[in-house]
Design goal:
By secondary structure, this protein is of the alpha/beta class. It has helices spanning about 20-35, 70-75, 85-90, 100-105, 120-130; strands at about 5-10, 40-45, 80-85, 115, 130-134. It has one domain: 3-Layer(aba) Sandwich (Hypothetical Protein Ychn, Chain: A).
Length: about 130
Amino acid sequence: MTHDQNQHLLVLTHGQEDGGSRATLAFALAVSLQAMGSDVAVYLHEQASLWAFEGASQSIHIPGFDSLQTYIDLFLEGAGTLYVCASCANDLPNKAGGYSLSTVSKLGALKPTVIPAGITTLASLLLNRKSVSL
């Protein structure tokens, strides 16, 4: 099976435990790939499901990069597809190392363009795209 050279999948598994550094890198990479003509999808899994919510990325800014929210906005404006593990997003406060209920309640709703998806969607994406996990 061959991968389409212009289709990429970034699987992000890290949330705020690193201050948003991996999320910033993942979305900066996604935007860079889009600028090079690639069709890019991002799948948020485990702790990274946090980034699917409206209020999660507002205050994240890693030195040397634009804000995480800027990269997410650019990614979505560039027709990127953003998936979130549905069970992960629904169970954020109960996961090992999960977020408190007060943190989760401040996040608001899922971003309107986020697609809740299961493991079969991830498997399907992996079959047809080059992938990297961050």
